[in-house]
Structures are given as C-alpha cells and as structure tokens.
Amino acid sequence: MTQRPPLGPDERRLLLALARHTLERCVVSAPLPEVTACKMPPRLAEPAACFVTLTRGGELRGCIGNFEPRAPLWQAVRENTCAAALRDRRFAPVQPDEVPGLCIEISVLSLLQPLDASDPEERLRRLSPGRDGVLLELGSRRATFLPQVWDKLPDKIAFLDQLARKAGGEAGDWRRPEARLFLYTVEHFAEAENDPPPEGSPPALEAPVSGAYAGGMDLVTVYRTFSAPEAQVIRGRLEAAGLAASVRNEHSALGSGAGIAGVEYCVQVPEAVAEQARQLIQSSGISE
Q1: Residue 171's domain spans which residues?
Q2: Domain end: 145, 166, 184, which one?
C-alpha cells in the first residue's frame, strides 16, 4: 500500500493551528482564516484526502472527511474542520463555548487500495488491526472506520460487523461476495489535550486568500447526491451559467453507526449566488 512520506513537525503544527483558528471562527460564522497559498509549505499544497476529528474528554464530538485528494491538504483540513464542527449529523453543531474544551485530530489518508478477495476468511486474513482503515461498499451505501477505531474494536469480525451496520446493513454483510472493501492507512496527529490553544496566526494564515481558495462558511451546499457523476453534471451546468461551483464529499468516519450511512457529494457555491443556483437547478428539472 503506497504511503505518503510523513509530514514534519512544523507542517503538523501549521495544520493544527489552521484547524484551531478555523474552528474558532466557523462556530460564530466569522470569516475563516485567510491563507496565503504561496507561503504554505509545498507538502501542504499537494492534493490530499483527510479527516478532521473533534473530541471532548476523549469522547467523539464530530468527524468528517474525504477520500479523494482533490484539493490542497491545507484546504481539505479547513473545509473538514468546519464540516466536523457544524455538519456531522450525529451531533448538534458545536457551540462557541465548547471550543476551548475540544481537541483536534487530523488524519491524512493514503490512496484507497481494493481488498481483492471474495472469501470472508481471506478478507479477515488480509486485515491488519491498528494499521488499516477500511471503507466498505454495500451497493450504493458506503461507510468507513479510520484505523484509530481498532483501539475500541480490536476484533476483526466485530470491527467489520459494526462497519456493516454503520453502512446501513446487517452484521455480517461484509461477508457477501458483492460487498467491496478498500484499505487505506493514515498519518494522524492531534493537539495535546492539556496544551492551551495556539495564540496568533502562523505567517501563512495572515494574508488574504484568493478567490480560488475561498471556502468554508462562505460556501453553501445547494445540491446533495450519492452519485459523483450526477454531482459533476450539476457543477458543469452551474459553471456554464457563469456561477462558480465546486464538488466535495462528506463522510462521517467514527461512531456507532447511527449517523451517516454513506458518502454524499455536495455541490457548493458562494453564498451570494446560492439562491440563483437553486433556481437554476430547479429549472433544469433536477431535485434533491
């Protein structure tokens, strides 16, 4: 399995600082930290997939991420921090008074690798507890557990049974020949629970960000779908009408399975043109 070279200590600190400043601002609907892309370390400007996890006293408070490395890592961290705080459907949105007590963890993902085995015993044999993150596909439904979940579910069968439930299936559905499994690894790092939040902004976060990188709370989701091609069609129609649009995917990675059962592809536009975009989508005969 191909792994990214690990980030250096300074790169990790910069991403955690970006996530912390993003969290503080998005919960009060303030402008997100401004980023100077050219000042970002080259590794953080490379496209990468990541998850951002929020915990309080060791308990999950929100976790959202993406699998496809479509945006610079720093941008993915910023977007997923906002999503974990405000759009994890298992939890109420994070309130401002909660922020000081939250710990942020970032998981940078490797590329997905299919687990090419239809025999359940062979699937179990190839799993490496503690190392492998697992994405399970049951038809159109998908769910994932980060490698950190092995700490709570160290048994391979219990791990996969719970993942199948999270995907909206039954325990044991991962044994079905048509079920598809993908493996990945992560580099994860977190704020120390007892350390005070960072003060001030790193240099790369001080200057205005260009429109190409604008995101977070100034973007509004106007269409959701479980089909990536459909999302790209909607994006193309909006752009053809002169509206800036992007597609990102959201997935909740941890928990008991009572939350998100699959990946949603979200078409987003700047808030100022959100209503115009919705009208255009409706006039095209497409509804969510």
Answers
A1: 113-184
A2: 184
The answer to whether position 96 is within a domain reads yes
Cβ atoms of residues 242 and 72 within 8 Å: no
Q: Among the three residues 165, 184, 203, which one is the final residue of a domain in this structure? A: 184
pLDDT tens across the length of the chain (288 residues): 566 789 999 999 999 999 999 999 999 988 888 787 777 889 999 999 999 999 999 899 999 999 989 889 999 999 999 999 999 988 999 999 999 999 999 999 999 999 999 899 999 999 999 999 999 999 989 999 999 999 999 999 999 999 999 999 999 999 999 999 999 999 999 997 545 555 555 545 543 333 333 333 357 788 887 677 777 788 778 877 877 777 776 554 444 333 333 456 788 877 778 888 888 888 876 544
- For residues 237 and 105, state if they share a domain: yes
Between 73-86 and 9-26, two packed helices, what is the crossing angle to 10 degrees? 40
* 17 domain-assigned: yes
Query: Is residue 198 domain-resident?
Result: no
Is 106 in the same domain as 222? Answer: yes
User: What are the residues facing 269 on neighbouring strands?
Assistant: 220
Q: Domain for residue 3, yes or no? A: no
